[in-house]
Amino acid sequence: MSTVITRLAPGLAGSRPRERRGRVAEAARCAITLTVAGAAGAAAIVVAYRRAEFGDSGQFGWFWAGMLLFTLSAGYWALRRGTSARLRLAVLIGYGAFTYLPKLLRHPSGPLYHDEYAHWGQSHDILVDGRLFELNPIVRVIGDYPGLHACVASLAALTGLSIWQSALFVLTTAHVLLTLGVAVLAGQLRPDPRIAAAAAIGYSLNSSFLFFDTQFGYESLSLPIMVWALVATLRALRATTVPARLGWSALTLLLAAATTATHHLTALWLTGIVGLLALVCTIHSIPARELITPARAAWALTSGTALIVAAWLAVVAPRTGDYLDPYLGRALNQFSGLAGGEEGGRELFSKSVLPWWEQSAAYVAPVVALIAMVAAVGLWWRLRYTDEPVARAGTTAMLLVGALYFPATALILTPAGAEGARRSWAFSYLGLAIAAAPVVVALLDRVRRLQPRLSTAGRTAAGAGLAGICALLLVGNNAAGMNPSYRFPGPPVYGSDTRAATPEVLAAAHWLLDTQGHGIRLVADRYSGLILGSYGEQRPTTGSESFPAYDLYRAAPGQPIAPALLAQLRDWRFEFLVVDRRMAEQVPDINIYFETNEPLRHDGVPAFDRAQLTKFDTMPWLIKLYDGPHLAIYRFDFGSLGQPVHEGTR
Amino acid sequence: MMTTILRPLVIAYASLAVLLPAASLPWPLLLAACLLALLAIGELWVRAVIGRPAESGVPAVRAGLTVLAGLLTLPAVALLLHPLGAAVAPVPLIAGCALLATVLAAAGLLRLHLGRPVAGEPCDEPGVPAQRAAGRTADLSGARRRATARTAAAILLPIGLSALVGVAAIRTVETSSHPVLPGYLTVALNGWAAGITHPVTVPARGLAVPVRITNSGLPTRTDWLRLRVGGAVVATRRVTMMTGKVYALSVRVPALPPDGCLRPIGISVGEASTVFYAKAQGGASGRARNDRGRTAC
């Protein structure tokens, strides 16, 4: 392994003309191969989406055929020993761009996922009003993190592109930067371009890479910034002169500030990882005295980053704690309850439409990750006397970050922890991929050394085995991490974030905007609220524990509405109530009517009856302005509360 | 050495000038100018903060940091404009970017001035052990130019090919047929009636209420339009609604008894309906009590 670590980076040294011609021919072969594979892969993904849209079977097979066609080709060129450094760079850029396609082709013309509506609306408001830090009606806290929205709105303002087009440009760039950033980060620990490429491709197998971290959401921009901040941190630790250390430290803190202004969780993860690096450097500095200065630098950067994050949370975004706390607190409670033998856990893949092989891959993927982790620990132990000190400390930190993947996998069993667990994988997989990448290259080298003794079939089996593991992780992680309705199109489904934009709801949103104007406060369910808050440019609320707006719907006919709730609605100037009568007919696809904490039944039976939702027709303080097959819009008239109504014409 | 700072500064100024709203240029030109300006400012960020970074592993450090810094320039300027009360709009953004470029260029020049060149390299970061050896071979300016050109090709070629494949795939998705989505019939209060906020007063001659009926995606159908007062049907009429048509109708509400009571007025077509509340003009208070002590309404 030591030969791998100290080998010169190919392509950075000068080359002879014949060698150069060979490199050009190699680059041409690579470009042709990957362009053909990319075109065929994209075509297969389009076929998969069309089959899903028309309700035909086979979308899963077509999708993965398209994805694996390109991923495995790119993996071959990226990990091939003879590939030059620049060609490897080109392959990784192409890989980053191609892996943005599944999300892009899912709905190229506008927002689709729950959070996308919120971020799109926020950016749109900045473009129209020019103001940052405005409260968002769909996701309360995102207004306090304007990094992505300011970037997209500014680009739109300067170029005349739409918000969506600007967002696609920013997000594609960010996705490619994330792929490259992981490679560069791995390169800071071991300057072998093959290890760097293996880390980038390994990281891309995580459950968020294809769909979640490509959406119009703040994570999609903050993750690449965090990865590059870690690159700058390692460079600061490695620097041998004071100006260089100061420069890279300044860059780390600037990128930490950018991360903090973009996304809360990423900022916390960045602080944690830099802190872990500082701790590991300190511990390693006991036997390796040359790590004393890097350890001091790491602690200074940890303090700086923590200070930036704390200041932002305290001064700019004090609501963040209240926003995040219920998720973590309830998840831990549910997990301790499960450990104590209580019921209430999640049944994985319950009523799932995923094929058996995707579900099986989802169960096997963590086991494969565990084997990779054990192998990475083994290699780390084997190299304990030969590794360069900063590389050793960095690898230790990455192993510890990667180890967090496994407890998070257990949290997936709790309803409240599942979302957080999925989101954490994008971070913990960074450690896992970087720590395991040298193992992959070491195994490839071992197979190469054994080649003379191996038959052709044996060599092919070794290559196929690695490709198979790669495919298994990609399929399994995505099956575990993303709901099928987010991954594939299909007919409108009640209670699905991605299939909520039916023509009826869009028409209602446009009617409200055209006749009543924008920025109106209204009460709505989660799915109507998404459309009304984005395309409709209104300010919907779905309720919360302290503002139980859903109690309006829960009240039985004839039962009075709580005066405190009515006072809140009146004092906060709510003007409209939106009622989707499907709440009395169907159970939402994702089993949420309003928000995750709602006090409603979730046992497979609709939580409302029809009378609860049509009672508004007879309340004199609600004027029914609009009605369709499912959706009705009422205006609040609090002045008529308690007014008697005469039934009959006489 | 100063050209490494002045060249991106000039490019940034020139590109930002193209972006001024007064130029009224088409978006492809504006996009190109914006990207050029951001790349130039990104390069200035890198030069000002860390100097010329050495590569390690995959040679993406300089290019990656330049693109990232350029991209983050926009939110950085927007955030700096916020406390000054300036809106996120073209002119403040352009002015902010120009000012930032100037400051970064000054910082870069200062860094050059203070730094001690090592083997013709302006204060380069030594990096990890393997790349130090690799970096020594690329000290000639001609060789470095060729290396830069090759790196640029390695970056631009995959971007171009990916864009080609991606645009073709998007065009296919957008131009191909899609399943027909379910249609709907809606009824809404229209015109002045869409603005009803309180109970309406109906004069003695009655009241004309505008309504809007929309048939989108449903086959042509004929339904009863019904007017209900106090829950009882007082008028009906058959209306035919053709596919994809919007109808503006007027429904006459008759005079109400002058008892001051609120009555629900319902207008429905098929299953869809609107409801508002009304009372007669000049009627007695709805709170009046009858002889048995109950409210009159």
UniProtKB/TrEMBL annotation, chain A:
Record-annotated membrane-spanning stretches: 27-49, 61-79, 163-186, 218-237, 244-261, 267-286, 298-317, 361-381, 393-413, 425-444, 456-475
Keyword Nucleotidyltransferase: no
Entry keywords, A to Z: Membrane, Transmembrane, Transmembrane helix
KW Repeat (keyword) present: no
Domain of life the protein comes from: Bacteria
This protein's name: Uncharacterized protein
Species of provenance: Actinoplanes cyaneus
Automatic annotation (TrEMBL), chain B:
Domain of life of the source: Bacteria
Transmembrane segments: 5-23, 29-48, 60-81, 87-110, 151-170
KW Membrane (keyword) present: yes
Species the sequence originates in: Actinoplanes cyaneus
Entry keywords, A to Z: Membrane, Transmembrane, Transmembrane helix
Protein name: Uncharacterized protein
